[in-house]
Amino acid sequence: MTRPLISLGLAAVFVALGQPDTALGQAPAKAGIRTDPENPRYTYRTRHSRDGIGKFYMGREIAHVMGHLGAGWLERSSRELEEKPQTLIRSLKLKPGDNVADIGVGTGYFARRIARVIGPKGTVYGVDIQPEMLELLEKNLGQLGIKNVKGVLGTIQNPNLPANRIDLALMVDVYHEFSHPHEMLRNICHALKPGGRIAFVEYRMEDPNVPIKLLHKMSQLQVMKEATPHPLEWVETISALPRQHVIVFKKTGATPSAK
Predict the structure, then answer these.
(1) What are the start-end ranges of the H helices in 49-205?
(2) Where in the chain is the domain with CATH 3.40.50.150?
(3) CATH 3.40.50.150: does it fit domain 68-251?
(4) In the prediction, which pLDDT does 74 show?
(5) 119-132 pLDDT, tens digit each
């Protein structure tokens, strides 16, 4: 999840050093750069942003994950104004009975709102890799009496969702933190129904006025670039939110094998 510069008292944005990676499978020649021996799609650099993990994918440095101790940030009162969650949910055109995967569900900020829209015949699969977040999710759901949200413990490579079940996979300010973005997208695609959609909600890299640290933003071009290896077709980019764009794809072709 993302945090604004001012929330951590930082006065500057640290930009990842170095040029985009070379062709897939070719180890970069520059000093301080090494290719991941298990997956040459990824490289590591010794010189990198303090906001990132030093791992790069398609020229982009992967950002640090926000831990469960920052859960209060997800429920901040200013989020209604900054992100307009109801506007986002309306733009996704959900239907009663839909199965929705909220990837990086956290405390359930969006899952709770989506649950009301899809109704009791639909299910929200709230995926997180932190058991502590899922405990907070369960507590919040219990207090509100919401019964159509199911917590799912995922891994850094797999959301552990049922195959061909999901109508929409939603990722709000989380994809840029995936340590294994290629594997995660492959496995999310495996969970989508044919024609199912995936929505990347990311702070706009194109807008320098968005007060978010650089590694916690993504451009539309970068998102489309990283979607290219997968059976995904761009549908639309929604620009109704104050700071984020919503980039929507649909699943096409055969279901990829999950790993």
Answers:
(1) 71-74, 79-83, 85-91, 109-118, 131-144, 181-191
(2) 68-251
(3) yes
(4) 73
(5) 999 999 999 999 99
